[in-house]
Amino acid sequence: MTLKLITAGESHGPGLTCIVEGLPAGLTLDREALDRDLARRQLGHGRGGRMKIETDRADVTAGVRHGRTLGGPIAIQVHNRDYANWEERMNPWPVEAPTPEVHLPRPGHADLVGTLKYGLTDVRDILERASARETAARVAGGALAKAFLRALGVEVVSHVLQITSVSAPRRDDLTLADFAHVDDSPVRCLDPEASRAMVNEINTLRKRNESLGGVFEVRAFGVLPGLGSHISWEERLDGRLAMAILSIQAMKAVAIGDGYEVAGLPGSLAHDEIFYSDERGYYRETNRAGGIEGGMTTGDPVVVRGSMKPLPTLTKPLRSVDIDTHEPAQALRERTDSCTVPAAGVVGEAMVAFVLADAYRRKFGGDHIDDVRAAVAAYQERIGWRR
Questions:
Q1: What is the pLDDT of residues 244-283, one digit of tens each?
Q2: Among 84, 138, 158, 220, which residue has the fewest nearby CB atoms (within 10 Å)?
Q3: Domain map of the chain by residue range?
Q4: Model confidence over 46-60: pLDDT tens digits?
Q5: CATH number for the 4-383 domain, one of 3.10.310.50, 3.60.150.10, 3.30.70.100, 3.30.1490.100?
Q6: Alpha-carbon dihedral of residues 229, 234, 239, 245, nearest 10 degrees?
Q7: Which of the 8 DSSP states describes residue 170?
Q8: Would you say 366 and 372 are in contact if contact means Cβ atoms under 8 Å apart?
Q9: Least trusted range by pLDDT, from 39-48, 121-130, 249-258, 299-308
Q10: CA nearest to 252, candidates 214, 220, 222
Q11: Is residue 155 classed exposed, middle or buried when 0-12, 13-18 and 19+ CB atoms within 10 A define those classes?
């Protein structure tokens, strides 16, 4: 049994669609929880005018009855309120007076390569689907994965570690309770002083017509050991997590645990030593591996970091070339955010949750959520897992 996710839709089209296949029957869903994650994706200091227009809500149209999953594919729609302002430009059907084509690709975006690859002449045919607006559908699907994981005792959270040159102090002792109020920070940073400095950084660079990137971290608490496999490359869970994070728009790097730091350490300081006690069973006092060794979860929190580049749409555009005339020109001016690292962390939660939920489905199967719980309990008993 595997979990599948597909999204459809364009940034300024009628809306976005998410289809999730593979969840068991009998799983209780909370509509407010779905909408809450969609709202969290829209938060964060540095967002632009689009977020003042949209109020994303999850409209479930299939696979759920009276708040419980039926075992079939679940379909969710997220409507684009801004479509009312774009109906002529983004109508699925021919219109009487088409708007002029866009010929100014943005450096750092899919615009130029997409038009070349698909044989198109209008950059808008590419940028609408390539837009990070698509992640609203992913967050909706990720909320379903979170509900499944929560039923098995797993919680997935995130926070911001860095925005451009401002970094939060490193903490290796984080618990789930530390994340209770992370969304109260305007940049979703756990450290109050760093949060204030990040807000100031955004304000300063936004006045200079700059965009900002940064680093977020996703943590999954309560994950069992043994998800994933060392046997084949495509089953290694760290590989799946890396692909999931890098599939998010504007991501340029990913790290599992202390992935960057351990590259500069000797072996004696890079690995997590193993201990055993009758009370705890096997355990480790550090988690440099980020909860994954040999492509499998260790039972420690899964820790994944994503590095985001500054957004390629700038209020002061970079140099480009008109794809119709081949003459030098400034890149497309489009309404944009200056910083979306806080929102990217929420998208990262969705992707990590989906990968972990898929790993649970692959390992434990089950047509009904009670079947899954029974299989998980039997596995815990077999391996003597005490947490």
A1: 999 999 999 999 999 999 999 999 999 999 999 999 999 9
A2: 84
A3: 4-383
A4: 766 555 566 799 999
A5: 3.60.150.10
A6: -130
A7: P
A8: yes
A9: 39-48
A10: 214
A11: middle
